[in-house]
Every structure is written in C-alpha cells, then in structure tokens.
Amino acid sequence: MTARMLTAHGRRSTIVLSCWIPLLAGCQGLFGSHAEDRIPQYGVVDPNLTRELKMVSLPPYVVEPPDELEITVRPATAELATTTLPVQADGNVDMGFNGDVYVAGLTLEQVEQKIAQHLTARAGPRPPREPFQASVRLVNGSQSKFYYVLGTVTTQGRFPITGNDTVLDAILAAGLRSNSLPEKAYLVRPHPAGGPDQVFRIDWDGIKERGDTLTNYQVFPGDRIVVPGGRAPGLLSTLLGG
Q: What are residue 158's DSSP bridge partners?
C-alpha cells in the first residue's frame, strides 16, 4: 500500500479553506441576524385575555357540518331509537322516513328541542301518545371547531380544539423548524367585518424560559397563531450544524 502525501500546495489549500470556513459561517450568522431584526413584531399584550391559570369554559357548542350526532328518542319507534347521524353540508340531519331537520347553528340543547318538536308534529294528535323527547350528544367530540397555526412550522394547518388549549400547546403541536422565529409569533383572533383587528403579541421567551403565563393565551375556535421564520439554513450552515 502506498501512502499518499499532501503536497505543499495541497497543505496550503487545506489551511486556507479551514480558515475561511469559520469566517463564512460567522458572516452567514451575521446576515441571518440582520434578517431576523427586519421582521416586525406584531400585536399588543392584553392582560385581560384568558390565559394559562386563568382559563374559562367555552360557550355552548354550536352544531355545524360535519359534526356527527348521536340521537336518542323517547318513546322509541321502530324507525328511530338511537342512531348516529352526520350534519350534512346543507345543515340538515337526515332522519329517514321522519324527514330532515335543520340543526346547523343550534346548540345541542336547541337541537334536542327541535327534533322532539319535529317528531311530535309528524306523529299528529293521536292520544294517548306522549310528546317525543330527544337526547343529542356529539360523537368523538368536536369535529367542526378548529384553531390554525400558520407560518414557519413543521405542520401548518388546522388543529381540533379541546377547550383547554393554549398558545404553548398550539405551537408545540405544530412543531418548530430550524429557521422558525417563535419570539416574533402572534395570535390573530377573528372579528366581525369592519371591527378592529385583534392581534396579540406572544412572548415566547417568557412562556418557555420564565414560565410567564401573561401571553400564553387560551385558544378559541377560529384563532390563528402565526410563527414567522428567517432565511432557511444554507448548505454551509447545515454542514456546520448551524
């Protein structure tokens, strides 16, 4: 076996390259830092918003497509006792020979009342039949209520809401990328047309490093959490583990 020896030119090239690599990496980090500084911080901090340690119950659930409802009727009939029905795109539940009932936009209690009234009216005045009663429950929890995580995250999209979600839960569920800037993150809450914007700053460092709950807001259906990002790491930075 013949050992290969570096020539003087080869040694000089290696030395020059090894000297330039840290310099290039430092320049890339400097440019990346300047790019991050140019990204604005949106939103204000509102100490009155519900948040971790000061959470509230969500308002009564409003049924929408494509929720699935478990409907139990008393007195039971041959056609309908207990059944699971989806809320269709047109807002109705199809109860077969008992007809359609429009339930979109109603709370579960209101759906129970409407189905009971519908079945009682269809049965007609035939004493001694007692009025129908209905019990309605959601199948598999919420299917039409979501929050959204957008921007530079691993999984961008919508996430089912449980009623006990916070900003920290949402960002961890979506996952951060190497160029995510959660310290510039903010929460956007839906508002009526023409109303003022509702944009709230998220203090990620406070949440993560100091356990500060002030901006670890409770997440409600329709909320958008935006995580900006810097320039994706280049090849050199990736090779150096940056």
A: 148
In a domain, 180, yes or no: yes
pLDDT band at 209 (very low <50, low <70, confident <90, very high): very high
Domain of residue 107, CATH code = 3.30.1950.10
Question: pTM, whole model, 2 decimals?
Answer: 0.77
| Residues 185, 181: Cα–Cα separation, whole Å | 7
Q: Which residue has the higher pLDDT, 36 or 115?
A: 115
- DSSP per residue over 140-193, as a string? SS-SS-EEEEEESBSS-EEEE--S--BHHHHHHHH-B-TTB-GGG-EEE----T
The token pair that represents 203 in the structure block = 């203090």
The structure tokens listed for 49 are: 């918003």
Residues 53 and 72 in one domain: no
Average pLDDT, the chain: 84
